Amino acid sequence: MRVAGTLSWIELKLLLREPVTVVFTLALPVLLLYVLAQVFGNTPDPEGEFYGGAGPLDYYTPAYMGLVIASLGLIGLPVHIASYRERGVLRRFQAARMPVAAIITAQLATAFAVTIAGSVLLVLLARLTYGVHWPVSWPGVVAGVFAGTLTFSAVGLFLGAVLPTARAAQGIGVLLWFLMMMVSGGGPPPEALSGVLNRIGTALPLQHVVVAIQDPWLGRGVNWPQLLVLLGILAGCAALSGLALRPRH
């Protein structure tokens, strides 16, 4: 436990030294929310056709919590893990008989710490600046954030394990982030997308994270099917990561 705690602190400091990760996790979701606030305000659509009848900012605040989570899973962790592979750090961990559980715990602790910091910053600024409503169900939101962070941690580990270099991981991660943002609930509302774009969004993990957080936030209850989908993605990516990172003799 002591080893995991020390390693977690080191991993957190290393991750926060990556400017791209800091921008995409802490700054860009807030900036996007402020831009949307100036364009749409927070008045609900009178016909309820878009945003599920909620105000645009009440709709997008939980969605952008999903963007915070996706930033770590698509950019932060893949770059970090790929860099470790490039520089032989993982091999040195194995040679030093560093417990695998300590390494995994450190990565998860880092992901949760940054997710909590980014989400709290986003929600507080949205609440103080634009009066965004608090969630109807805090436990449901926490469950969505927890499942989403675990899932995208597994996605990030998988990408870091299979992408050849840290530079490649960063480029592909940024591309995937913008793609998911646009079709998975962080850009135009799903009701405004074509059938093809809706199907693409549904196939990507971010949409499931967004809905799992949005539904309890807006009073629709815990979305258990979405949480189960996230657990399935988590299990699949974790298994593939284990195969990709398995020591080769």
Write the layout of secondary structure elements.
Layout: H1 2-16, H2 19-40, H3 56-86, H4 89-95, H5 100-130, H6 138-162, H7 166-183, H8 195-203, H9 205-217, H10 224-244
Describe this protein's structure.
With 249 residues, the protein is mainly alpha-helical. It has one domain. It is 77% helix and 0% strand. The protein has ten helices and no strands. Helix 2 (19-40) packs antiparallel against helix 3 and helix 3 runs antiparallel to helix 7. It is elongated, with a radius of gyration of 18 Å. 44% of the residues are buried. It is found in: Membrane.
Brief descriptors of the model:
single chain, 249 residues, mainly alpha, elongated
Rounded mean pLDDT score: 88
Q: Give the C-alpha Rg.
A: 18 Å
Multimeric status of the protein: single chain
Task: List how many beta strands DSSP finds.
Answer: 0
What is the strand content?
under 5%
Distance between the termini: 29 Å
Number of helices: 10
Largest sheet: none
Order of helices and strands: HHHHHHHHHH
Overall structural class, as computed from helix and strand content, comes to mainly alpha
- Large-scale geometry: elongated
Number of domains: 1
Helix content: over 70%
Residue runs with pLDDT of under 50 for 5 or more positions: none
Short description:
The chain has 249 residues and is an all-alpha fold.
